[in-house]
Design brief:
Number of domains: 2
Number of strands: 0
Distance between the termini: 22 Å
Radius of gyration: 19 Å
Number of helices: 9
Helix content: over 70%
Strand content: under 5%
Amino acid sequence: MHFTIFLILILGISIGVLIDYLADVLPYKRKLVAPFCTICQSSVRWQDFFAQRRCSQCAAKRTLRSWLIRLFLPLIFVVLWLFPTTRIDFWLGAIFITVFSLIMIIDIEHRAIIYPVLLPAAIASFAIGWVLHGIVPTLIGGICGYLIMLVLYYLGSLFERFIARLRKRPLDEVALGFGDVNLSATLGFVLGFPGIIAGLTLAILLGGIVSLFTVVYMLAIRRYRPFTALPYAPFLILGTAILLFRP
């Protein structure tokens, strides 16, 4: 038992390092390259990257994200192993956490859902959905996720144009991007039909709650800017994860 947990920890640490590396290089290069400093763009030796050392050129520290993902992902894997859910087994759950943690991190840091990550995520999600629900509910879930979010995307675009016309200048940020539409289709594969409807509903509720608290906080510190958008991928992914891993 203890040896198994040790192996799960090693797996979690390894995947945490992999996600940390991919979150550094893919948003900038869109392909696998040697590690580099995201501040000064100078090359970083692999041993320095693994050891979390400062950049040798600009002395920049590794980001808080880098430390957190390497610390918490192994713990999440151990918890998933010790307290399994009946809805999804450990290995499928580990694949989901790995792929969508990377998507979430990149969207939070860069406000982008990039295809080099989304395409493998779609393949993995379809495989997970096929195992959990069968092929037909998986396909319908993906289609519904895409169409529902597509409607919301166009409604959001109309609202943004209306507000921009009232303000006589374009908005600095948009609420939903087309990457969110594609991500919803991918998560639709995972949840199947009708699960994707519950997943999107939960994501919208989570987004609304966090947005409300964000507005209150920004008003309290007098730094509120109207129509400041939050990255939406984390809410979509969290809504799916809650349904997928609930007891």
